[in-house]
């Protein structure tokens, strides 16, 4: 399966969009330095928002590899 997305907004815009949804964004690993990219493909490092266990209405923005292992242990 192929997976590709683009990121053309800055961190402040992402935080504002989530704030409109009443979700506060934390930066548990520090605010990431995110550059605009037309293509973020599988295995590229990219920002994601993940849940915070036991906390409602907040998310944590981190940089991670954009893929999850498949059944054969490859992305």
At a glance:
The protein has 75 residues and is mainly beta.
Write the layout of secondary structure elements.
Elements: E1 4-7, H1 11-20, E2 24-26, E3 37-41, E4 45-51, E5 58-65
Parallel strand pairs: 2-5
Antiparallel strand pairs: 1-3, 4-5
What does this structure look like?
The chain is built from 1 helix and 5 strands. With 75 residues, the chain is mainly beta. The chain has one domain (4-65). The strands form 2 sheets. It has a 3-stranded mixed β-sheet with strand order 2-5-4. Strands 1-3 form a two-stranded antiparallel sheet.
Defining traits:
single chain, 75 residues, mainly beta, two-stranded antiparallel sheet, 1 helix, globular
Q: What is the 3D shape?
A: globular
The chain-level structural class is mainly beta
Q: How helical, in percent, are the residues?
A: 10-25%
Q: What Rg do the Cα atoms give? A: 14 Å
Low-confidence stretches: none
Order of helices and strands: EHEEEE
Instruction: Characterize the largest beta sheet: strand count, sense, and whether it forms a barrel.
Output: 3 strands, mixed
